[in-house]
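In response to reviewer comment 3 from the previous cycle, which asked for concrete evidence that the modeling workflow produces usable outputs, we include below a single protein chain processed end to end. The sequence was submitted unchanged, and the resulting C-alpha cells are shown without manual editing.
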Amino acid sequence: MVYPVDDVAVAEVATPSSTVEVVAAPVSRQPTTPSPRTQEASTGQPGQVAMPAMAANPFAPRNWQAPPLPVVTPTPVVVAPALPVEPAGPPPLPFKFMGRLHDGGEQVVYLSQGEQTLIARVGETLGATYKVLGMDAQRIEFEYLPTGDKQQLALPASE
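The workflow returned the following C-alpha cells.
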C-alpha cells in the first residue's frame, strides 16, 4: 500500500515474516491554477463565475456574413523565349562488320545488328532507318533516314 506522508511517498511491503517500510523520493506538488468556475468575478463576490465579454449580452446583434475577401492582383508571369533545340544527331551505328563477298563484280557486306544478320548492298535500306549510300574497301557510308545525316562504318582491311 502506498500513501503520502509529509510530501513523501511511503510504501509498506508485507513479507511472510515481517513488514518493511520503504520511503521513496519526495512527491512534488505543483501549484495548480484555479479553474474559471472557482474564480471570483470582477465584482469580488465569492462563488460567482467570470463571464466572457461576448456572453455578457446574449441578444446583441451579430454579423453572420463572412468578411470580404482581399483583392489579389495577379502578377504577370514572364515566360522566357524557348531556345532553339539543336538536333542531337543520329544515334551511333547499330551495325558490326561480319564479312564481305565479291559476287560477280558486286560487293556484298554482311553486318550484324544484335542477333540479326543483314546483307548490305549499295542502294538498299536496312531496318527502315538506314540506307546504304556507298561502300569501298575501307568503309560503308550510311544515311540516317529520319534526319538525313550521313555516317560511316570503317571496315577492316581485306586479306
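Strands lie at 2-5, 8-14, 19-26, 96-103, 106-113, 116-120, 125-126, 130-135, 139-144, 149-154. We consider this sufficient to address the reviewer's concern, and the full set will be provided in the supplementary archive.
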